[in-house]
Amino acid sequence: MPSTRTHAPRGALVFDMRQLGRQAGSALTQTRTVPAPDDLRLELIGVPAGADVPLEVRFEAVSEGVLATGTAIAPLAGECARCLAPLTSSVTVGFQELYLYAEGRHDRHDKHDKHDKHDEQEEQDAGEIYHLDGDLLDLEPAFRDAVVLALPMSPLCREDCPGLCAECGAPLADAGPGHRHDAAVDPRWAALQQLSEQGNDKHQDRRAGAIDLQEG
Ligand SMILES: [Zn+2]
Ligand SMILES: [Zn+2]
C-alpha cells in the first residue's frame, strides 16, 4: 500500500535562484501557494499542516548572497484561550532574511558523514545564518521562524470573549448577560451555617464543630 504523505512535500519552499543570477542589484519576485509545513504551532493555535499558504517573495541579489523579503498569509486553527471554543483565523506574516552564498561550505557538504553538528549548533545559537545550496534557496526555516513568532500566545475567539463562568464553567457568551449564581453560598459560609444549625439542634456536637471551624 503506498504511503500517503500528510505533511508538506520537501521542497515546497525551495526556490531556484538561477533566474535571479548573481549580479548585485538584480531582483525577482515570485508568488506561490505552498502547503504549510508540519509543526507550525504553539500550545493553543497553529497552522494546519498542508493548508494552503499564499506567499509572495522578493529575491534580491546582494554581494554576499540573496536577500529574501516575503509576505505570507497563514491560516490558523486552534482554540480560544478564554472559553476554549474552537476558532479559525489567519495571520499575515512578513519576513526578511539574508541567505549567504554557499562558497566555503562545500567542504563541509562533501564530508557530510562527518557533518560538524557543533558548528551548526553554534550558528543557530548566534541567531540563524541561512545559506543557499548552490542555486537553491530553501525558504522554509525563515518562513517557519516568522510564522511561529507571529502566532498568538493567547488566541481569542473574539476580542471581547467573556470566557467561562468561574462558578459553573459555562461559556458566558452562550449563557447570556443574566447568567449568575446568586443562590450559591461560599463553601466556607456554608460550613459555618451548617455548624450553627448543628449547634442549635444538638448541643453535644458543638465541640467537634468548633474544631472543624479552626481547621477550615
Ligand atoms: Zn472565546
Ligand atoms: Zn455559571
Quick description:
By secondary structure, this protein is α+β, with helices and mostly antiparallel strands.
Keywords:
single chain, 216 residues, alpha+beta, six-stranded mixed sheet, two-stranded antiparallel sheet, 6 helices, disordered N terminus, binds zinc ion
Report on the structure:
There is one protein chain. This protein has 216 residues and is an alpha+beta fold. 25% of the residues lie in helices and 28% in strands. It has 6 helices and 8 strands; from the N terminus they run E-E-E-E-E-E-H-H-E-E-H-H-H-H. The strands form 2 sheets. Strands 2, 3, 4, 5, 6 and 7 form a 6-stranded mixed beta sheet that branches. A two-stranded antiparallel ribbon has the order 1-8. Strand 4 and strand 5 form a beta hairpin. Helix 5 runs antiparallel to helix 6. The radius of gyration is 29 Å and the shape is rod-shaped. The N terminus is likely disordered. One zinc ion binds next to loops.
Oligomer: single chain
- Main beta sheet: strand number and arrangement? 6 strands, mixed
Overall pLDDT score: 81
Determine the structural class based on helices, strands and strand pairing: alpha+beta
Which kinds of small molecule does this entry bind, naming each only once? zinc ion
The rounded distance between the terminal residues' Cα atoms is 64 Å
